[in-house]
Amino acid sequence: MTEERAFNKSASTKGQRKDESTPLLPDASTQNSQPNVGKGQFIAIFMSLMIGAFLTALDSTIVITLLTRIGSEFEQFNAVSWLGTAYLIGSCVVQPLSGKLSDIYGRRPCIIVANIAFGLGCLGCGLSRSFKVLVCCRFLAGLGGGAMNTLSVVTVSDYVSLRQRGLYQGIANIVWGVGSSLGGVFGGLMDGAFGWRMAFISQVPIIALATLSVTMFVKTKPKASNKDSKLKRVDFLGSLSLMAAVGLLMFSLSTGGNEFSWKSPIIIASLVLSPIAFVIFWWVEQNYAAEPIVPMKVLRNRTVFAANMGGWFSAMGGMALTFYVPIFFSIVKEYTASEVGVQLTARAAALSLGSVSAGIFMLKGKYYWLSLAFCVVQIAGAIAHVFMAPETPDWSYYMIIAIPALGLGGVLVTLMMATVASVGLEHQAVAISIAYAFRSTGSTIGVALATAVFQTTLWHALSSHLSGETAAEVIECHKQAARVN
User: Fold this and answer.
1) Cα–Cα distance for residue pair 76/243, rounded to 1 Å
2) DSSP string, 178-190
3) Fewer C-beta within 10 Å: the chain N or C terminus?
4) Main-chain phi, psi angles of 379, to 5 degrees
5) Tens of pLDDT along 364-393?
6) 409 with 350: CB under 8 angstroms?
């Protein structure tokens, strides 16, 4: 408890507040830990990091329009959703570790390794001659992409004051939103023009240029330590147990109800072993690790815990809507793929507006009521989706889709800044990594829960209206057609 009180005291030294009306974000003048770089050099750094973040977002959704072609070529229609699952698991596993490893080895080496892993993964996907190799390469790309996404925000935080980080976080959210929105479109265009392999290979030279830019301009140094060896500072046992816990959880949530039944032994075993691995990780970090990969005192901070839980639930709800609103347009409204894409532009625009507006408002240093306001907007928007019906005017869909996206874009920025502002400088990289890990797991759980509810509701509705010898076959056919991969 003494250590925890000292941590909380040191975390609030620069931004003390007596009540919620007092700004927690300190002035730029108090943030003297940033590397001294020129404006041109910072722009080069920021652009190279955002290129990596954009490609990461693009690659996360690029397979949406490629699944049929890839499944046909490898004759793996039943397993083709592993292309998305492998990337997701790789990304989620590495995100909690990225911040601490960059503290030990430095931002630049870690970003370079992440970029290389992502580039090799994309290259391997484009050159693969077997489905298993393709899935492994997607996992490698996910490892690199997850690390790139986290390290881009961590590195930008090294160069700007805490008060300004909300604005840059908002820009990063725009980059992510645009990239993830264009992934399927880009994949389809590349497939039509050059074949699906070029959708992956074409990313390699771009990430190579971004890596070169990072090598030339990023100059931050690793944090000093009394220990002689950097290798000895790495919490291997904690890292392995955390990777096992997150990996098993993501595997069970991503494949349960799709590739495997929820009652299958492999899913049950994953759901049982995941919390056991989390307990082992907690014990290692609390009692064994000399330099924990995720210090428990960070998570015990009230603001950090509350902000991460808020981000967890916000990402959960936002991702569920992202996946199932297009199904409503495709099946109920019978829109074409291009018409669905036009409807979803409202989401990307609102997400961008919410992110940037939150960053601008936070230049004043206050975010408590701003966070609550964006949460209310997201909840109201989610409730509005209940009233979507076939007879709803087309113009109103844009508004219904935009409202929760506006709230999500704002709340992710404000909660990230709440997390960063509540810890000391020595824990900020770790805090950002934790925040991204909460978002990733929340997104996956949101889709898994929405899928379970959707499939169950669909099964009961079809069962009550269909009968006869072919009823079971027809029901299963409809469930597969509406399944989220």
Assistant:
1) 28
2) HHHHHHHHHHHHH
3) N
4) -65, -45
5) 767 788 888 999 999 999 999 888 888 888
6) yes
